[in-house]
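Recap quiz, item 2
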Amino acid sequence: MRDLATRLETEGVTDAVAVAEFGFASTFSMAEAWLPRIQSFQALPAAIEPQRSWWREYWKGISFALPMLASILSIMLLDFSLWGGDLSPEDATATGLGIVCSFLLGGGFVQVVARRGLFLAGTNQFHRCEQSTWCWVRRGVAFTILASLALVAASAYWDWLPSRISLTTAAFCVALSLFWMATGIFHVLDRGMLVTWVTLGGIALVGALRFGLHLPLVNSQLGGILVSACAAFLISARLLRRRCEKPAVAEVPSSFLRDVFFLWPYFSYGILYYLLLFADRLVAWTAHTHASAFAVQFRADYETALNLGLVSFIVEVGWVHCSTVSFYRIATRAQKNFSIGNTGGFEREMIRFYWNRLARFIPVAMAGAIAGLLAAKAGGFLHGSVLTTAACSLAGFPFLVVGLWNVSLLFALSIAQKAAAATAIACLVDLTAGYLLTRIGDYHYAIVGFLLGALVFAFLSGYWTLRAFRRLDYFYFAASA
Amino acid sequence: MTPPSVLLTSDGTYPCYTGGVSVWCDQLIRQLPDVQFHVFAITYSPSHVPLYTRPSNVASQHILPLWGNEEAGPQMNFASSLLRKISTTPQVIQAGFLEPFQMCLRSMFGNDSNPEEMAEALVGLHTYFRDSDFAVTVSSPAAWDTFLRVCSDAYPKHDQPTLEEATTCMHWLQRYFAVCAVRFPETDVVHASMAGLGGVPGVIQKRVAGSRFLLSEHGIYLRELYLSLSRMKQGIRCRRFLFAWNEAIARMNYHYADSVSSLCEFNRQWQLRVGATAEKIQIIPNGIDPGIFSPSATRDTDRKRNCPPTVLTMARIYPLKGIDHLLRAARLVVDSLPAVRFRILGEVGDQKYYLHCLELVDELGLANNIEWGFTSDAASAYKDADVFCLPSISEAMPFCVLEAMFSGCPVVATAVGGVADMIGSTGLLTPPRNSKSMAEAILALLKGDAAEAFRQELAAKAMARARSLYTIEKCSDRFRETYDELSRIPRTTGHLTAR
């Protein structure tokens, strides 16, 4: 009744007006008299929010992999890309190792920048998002430079690689780490397509340096990566600044230890995920053969076979984003439909949703495998050990994609430590199986390690996801706190 | 007598936001230099920084962001904080948290919430959070399950909240409980500038440390809440939950306050309706420094130089200020006086509403007549204006009206809250949301041969009234007397011994 009196007052019905125009003793007595009539009105139904079509979400999902696709196409059509291409075995080893090291050393920082940034941007704390982003980028750059120098020193001391190769590796590692971090900020800002444009710009610059100035390909690529990374940093700095709140805001002192405490699952997942992706390569590259001149040897045929799996991965990964968006939509809807007395119903509906989405992935996985096989046929790779490696890779990537979806659900429910644990165990299986098989047999057997690792990753993360779904009402509440 | 120490609490105002209550807090602290103040301020986000320089008599200033990702509870180093988290086990939560938490919920859901039961629960939570981690506790499965169970008991079977509503409401509670996790300084008096969450420290310190509790209300907390809740996007059960929580808190604050100050008779009537007792309430109007706000010697000379007539509005841009009604009135005024200029000065409090107003300006074809802005020199703005207009749909005792009265700027204002009491017959009053009558009042002061004489007559009357009733000294002297009276009352030991 008091709220009705308040509304009447703000409509100009003061006590004097209530007496003179409506014949009541006061605004309050008028509200009291009118309340039953007001209560009999039906509330308007809530507006239905428009949904984005599934193909838009699918496109957004695969847009993460578009730079990778651009690189593969560039290599196929032009013999070079922003990284990789028609290189000597030494340069291929240096760039290959540089790429892997950049992911392993910078991946944790990219993950932290992205997760923290997405959280802060999602809660409209853009100034803090900017602060946190640059703080972690600075830490990442410093760490990558120091770790790369340490690897160069270790290589020189233990004679792993000739100094030219180890220095090129370090240069690629640092330059690419900068590139991943800079482009990671675009994802925070929901401007994923910029990553593709920056990559294409970098490829064009590599072409200009190589064919215009006749620089060696490795030097052109280093120049291209560094310039694109700087451009990406400048653009993201501008975009971040533009989104910052207008008035002066508090500088929040960051505590490194506190950050580490809250962010370690994301940081370790960032490293472990890339380790899972590249562990088989490292195992294959370090397997001894008579042709190997160094402790680490790039395997071009193994890489080619893996690239087929990568083509399937690009097709399949769009499903992860679609399904995660669906999870939020269905969970939000189910939360509205189930009362607090029926939490079991809510959980059962969401578990049904989980299995339903997994079932829908089967045709996507088959489409991915067919795309990979078609790519193999077009490239004429369907023979010998390349075929076996490609087949294992095509079989492994769907499990990796399922694991990625589970991880995205675990992140959504703030159970990131389980995501990190599943990835760590999968890495262990991948490295152990791959190492044993390659030391007993051929280096191609490293792919079996990848396949087993991907299987473990999918099953363990799935197990923990389903366990969380059995208390989804609580986890959904705790994650959104 | 030793000057009293005072814990001044605010919610969404001083020192991180502009507006009437913030000005009042700042004035109060500066006018009583011998009183040692501690400030406890609730803000909406960690991004808000103090906008007022800290006077030397403010011994400490604690800012609690209600939203954002800061962890509530005492600031401590990482190792201690980690130990606290580890030691907050499910058993600790079970033993120390669940009982006061349930008591708080039951008290809130009861038909007529019992203020003493609510206070007991909040003090229980305050005691618990001294040693246990806030974030671990309020996000624990036990807290969630308890919340669902109590809600399930409180609502009838056919009208149970959905999981979404329960999640939203529990999130709100998590934030509100952050106030209970603060360690407040021990002072003679706790002075709350609002009857909502800002009053909780007053109740806790009264119960725990025997401090005296003074509650000052500018707007009526619950009344403003009714207005803001009506614009909320959340469903009816969520709004009911907020009503229940805030009514329980306000009722508790009124019950425990040793003295309640009100700005005007209109507010006093409301306070009586929402739970305050008549013998506790005293009316202390706001005050203005006449040294800062004084009439312009050149206003009339400027007018003769054919400067366009200026209508000034000083207000934060948000719906309760009724800026959209002013714009519609402006259209009618411009139809009669095409050269008139409307200056709307104030920070944007609601971006969506501001954008709506900008669209309205375009729609009404007023782009050449409306000036938006913000000034740090309010006194000059009043001196440059011919008429001051306040189109609010809800107010208590707005400072801007007093400032205009002191500056010799005739006032047109809506008859809301205590505005009519303030102005008396020295300005023109119009009903809220009535653009036509607002336009007529403005035109009465700007158009025609008699307008200038009418403005001068109203300005002179307003100035005389303001100087006799609303000076800053009068206001601060009343509060100083109240502080002294309250601190003379011997402190009783609370239900709990302060640590």
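Chain B is about 50% helix and 15% strand.
Chain B touches chain A through 49 residues (CB under 8 Å).
End of item.
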